[in-house]
Amino acid sequence: MKGHASKNWIIGGLYAVTLLFVAGCDQQETAAPSSSTPQGATAGIRDANVNLLSFEAIYEMSLERTSSSSNIAAYEGLLVLDTIDACDGFSTNQRISALVGDQEGKSILSDFVMTSWESTDRTLFRFESKVKMGGILAEETIGRATRDNTEEDGAIIFETPDIDPVMLTPDIQFPTEYIVQLISAAKKGESLYQSLMTDGSSETTVFETVTFIGDKGNPEELEFEGAQLLEGLDHWPITMGYHNRDSKEGLPEVEMSMDMYENGVGTHIVMDYGDFALRAELKELKAVEGAGC
Questions:
Q1: SS3 call for 50
Q2: Are the CB atoms for 235 and 224 separated by under 8 Å?
Q3: pTM of the predicted protein model
Q4: Within 13 Å, how many C-alpha atoms sit on residue 138's CB side?
Q5: How far is residue 166's CA from residue 42's CA, in Å, rounded to a whole number?
Q6: 26 three-state secondary structure
Q7: Is the pLDDT of residue 30 over 90?
Q8: pLDDT in tens, 121-141
Q9: Number of helices and strands (H, E) in the chain?
Q10: Backbone angles phi, psi at 149, to 5 degrees
Q11: Residue 37 has pLDDT above 90, yes or no
């Protein structure tokens, strides 16, 4: 595992987390079938076999492990998020507030806020995030990925920071699209799903995202408020790696493992950055009424 992570990830801004928290709708369209190779253009996000949940959730975050090279000795925080299907698109609001301690015994409050919108027709993905350290703005990202249609190239454009646009080819997926296709693959008994994906991160704009899917898990006894929303649902252990497509090393920038439920909710999440890892445990889950088509 690569011993590197961008600053916004270290202090709590986990762009990759948004992949696991997407909203769903009862009225579905059929998307292109999944495979173990990168996907091309599809007509839209929705899949008739995947019915995701619009929800609000609270996760308790802690330090799973660390090393001296990370300079992180303690981590305590909360991840609060809501994901809503508005029929023509999927919105996600995410906030991570955490107290981060270093090897010298000093602590600082980190605050990460991210909002995003992804259209169901694959033509638009808007994203905005801010990272504050001790109340001071440390990092900000604002941008959008757009296509005129799903068969031609578009562009990923950043308002902040001031970096050059990146080509958005038809085979690059947005986060909700990726997770829908991943769940579809799991339901079909496939053990691997991978595709190019962009999620609003400016350091690595496009990832080669590779997910290994384990055998369907046995029923779990879940003890948190709202656990009934996961009762009786299929779930799979997955390990998801985010690779810089320009890297020669072949190792992921970050690796995330969890139990993924068929409605898009993840439990027992571990985010591994090489020289340290964070755990997120689901503490409260609530369905958003009236969402969807």
A1: coil
A2: no
A3: 0.85
A4: 19
A5: 21
A6: coil
A7: no
A8: 999 999 999 999 999 999 999
A9: 2, 15
A10: -155, 175
A11: no
Question: Can you tell me which residue has the tokens 């190792």?
Answer: 251
CA 293/CA 287 separation, integer angstroms: 15
What's 52's DSSP letter? P
Answer yes or no: is pLDDT of 41 > 90: no
Sign of CA dihedral 73, 201, 274, 222: positive
- The SS3 of residue 190 is coil
112: β partners? 96, 131
CA atoms within 13 A on the CB side of 191: 2
The string over 267-277, giving b where at least 16 C-beta atoms fall within 10 Å of a residue's C-beta and e elsewhere, is bebbbbbbbbb
The span from the CA of 116 to the CA of 18, in Å, is 9
Tokens of 55: 């929800």
194-221: per-residue pLDDT in tens? Answer: 999 999 887 788 999 999 999 999 998 9
Cβ neighbours around 100 below 10 Å, total: 21
Residue 279's DSSP bridge partners are 62, 270
Contact 119, 146 (CB under 8 A): no
Q: How far apart are the C-alpha atoms of 81 and 85, rounded to whole Å?
A: 14
Structure token digits, residue 249 = 């090393």
Pairing assessment for the beta strands 124-133 and 89-101 based on DSSP bridges: unpaired
Ordered DSSP codes for 104-173: TS-EEEEEEEEEEEEETTSSEEEEEEEEEETTEEEEEEEEEEE-SSTTS-EEEEEEES----EEE-TTEE
Which letter does DSSP use for residue 49 in this model? T
**Per-residue tokens: 135:** 């109340």
- Length of the chain equals 293
Whether the pLDDT of residue 1 is over 50: the answer is no
